[in-house]
């Protein structure tokens, strides 16, 4: 599939970037070049064949073409077609690290994080999105008179490639009901659990939500909400000097003693003991 691999061990070198509009119909040039190509179409459609495979790239779509491969046009590109382009070179990362994603928790703060990944050949649905904006900003900056432009462009482009690379991992499926409920409960740690409030928010019976949530998350909604509140309490005990009573009140607990019992059940120690042990870690 003529993939292009990006890596944290090498920075791309941009050798050309800009914006073009076709004043007349034309065919993509028949050529083999020593640089990779990014094409992002704003209006119209670009037709290009790479190594015998035909690509049709329309508005809001992005395509990568790999260096050293023959590219040519079989179909005419219409007048008025508009697109951004970037020509860039990459030093090939080691095959041993391609696709290697170490667990961040196992990597020390002073250790380099080596990561390589394959750029998606083509992306769609980018019209008026942040990727289009980033490409536009890059092309505009390439036209600037900034004398440090050559130093900055490559870093900007590397950031853009990183965003493009991770987009293929974004889940395009609608979020499950339990995930939506989790997000809502995460955002409401400062108030008590309320079944009636959940029913109003999601227009579903509590019984139905409870059954789906337990099946998908392996716990009840109230257990999840309590865990969110206690996790927030741990953070506040570690990072603030607020009295325990104020922390309890900020999390929607009117009774500090009840808060302490809930916290002990979650953390295995009292809030005061947790705070003292956290301080000893620094």
Characterize the structure shown:
With 282 residues, the chain is α+β, with helices and mostly antiparallel strands. It folds into two domains: 5-167, Jelly Rolls; 177-279, Orthogonal Bundle (Arc Repressor Mutant, subunit A). The chain is 39% helix and 18% strand. It is built from nine helices and ten strands. Strands 2-8-3-6-10 form a five-stranded antiparallel β-sheet, covered by helices on one side. A three-stranded antiparallel β-sheet has the order 5-4-7, with no helix packed on it. Strands 1-9 form a two-stranded antiparallel sheet. Helix 3 (177-186) runs parallel beside helix 6. The longest helix is centred in the middle third of the chain and has 19 residues, at 149-167. It is elongated. The two termini are 51 Å apart. Mean pLDDT is 85; it is low at 93-114.
Strand elements, count: 10
Element string (H = helix, E = strand): EEEEEEEEEEHHHHHHHHH
Largest sheet: 5 strands, antiparallel
Task: Give the radius of gyration.
Answer: 27 Å
Name the poorly predicted regions.
93-114
Report the top-level CATH class of the largest domain: Mainly Beta
Count of discrete alpha- or pi-helical segments spanning 4 or more residues: 9
Span of the ends, CA to CA: 51 Å
Strand order of the largest sheet: 2-8-3-6-10
